[in-house]
Amino acid sequence: MGLSDEELFAAFTPEQAENHRKHARERWGEEQVALTEEMLKQLSKDQWDRVQEDGGLIAAQLASLMAWEHDHPEVQRAVARHHAWIENFYPASAEVYRGLAQMYAEHPEFRAYYDGFAEGLAVFMHKAMTFYAESELA
To answer: Which of 15, 88, 96 is nearest to 58 (CA)?
Structure first.
């Protein structure tokens, strides 16, 4: 059996979940949001837990690399891992990945989440992800 809405959005209050959905629909369209949610609902609870854990590990890894420049090969390897992780949710073309990078730096909840790993991580990820999108995905 796949994930329920409650399991999918367990990390958020109902208001936060609806705000994320609304923002996603405005940015990527109703159809993309519905496809992503349907894809995720096919995951088992264990698979979903692993996806979430991997996201935290990747963010922690990127936080540990902030002493290097955003285009450093080690940083870019971690960003490649992040990009592959994002594709658990939807295909991330160069344009989509750049947009996600911008959202990490500008959206208060995403910025707070990443900056919770290390102050400035959201902006660092914006730079690193944008570089990756332009050098590897374009």
So the answer is: 88
